[in-house]
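Sample entry (248 residues):
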Amino acid sequence: MLITKWLTAFGKYLLLMGRTFSRPERFRMFLKRYVTEMSQLGVDSIGIVLLISFFIGAVICIQIKLNVQSPWMPHWVSGYVTREIMLLEFSSSIMCLILSGKVGSNIASELGTMRVTQQIDALEIMGINSASYLILPKIAGLITIMPFLVIFSAAMGMVGAYATAYFAHIITPTDLTAGIQHSFNPWFMYMSILKSLFFAFIISSVASYFGYTVKGGSVNVGKASTDAVVSSSVLILFSDVFLTQLLS
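Predicted structure, serialized as tokens:
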């Protein structure tokens, strides 16, 4: 019974995506909404991304220095591990999990409110493809801005590590710089960005599905928002395993 429910939901999701990725009726209107969604979903999230990344970078550097290093390890190991963790996992996977809570709930609650207040029905009556009009700009906007969030996150993590070097005196800035520069593989940055593009699509499309298909009243909007965050988080974790194996 549960598998049937999941398959039904997946079929409805595919049908909705089929309607979403149709050609916009008015490209100028789509472009305007695209810029707006890119600002609301991505630019407005820069603050929390920078704040969390700063402290995570600092904490990773401190933990590695105090709990992992030994007299047989080079002093630059803390910087090296901090860079690898930020690039390989945190700036893409963990940051997208955090954003699924902020961005995903925002999308689901917005579309859910439009559904229960019959605004989507009004668009359909006017002959507008509401799925393409409402959802496509959100997906395109988040996918566009996500690589920049990943780059900002990785850079701010390094700033947090340097803060521990200059102010907490956990590690010398010279050793930290040597670790950050040691055996740098540019592909890790590209891999992080590629993963974030998939995660951005998951967050925006899954949240849009749950919000767009809300039935009932305002209570169901809250439930749809919760389901959107949980489902997108689980899908990000599952896809992270396969993408890491595929891209490594």
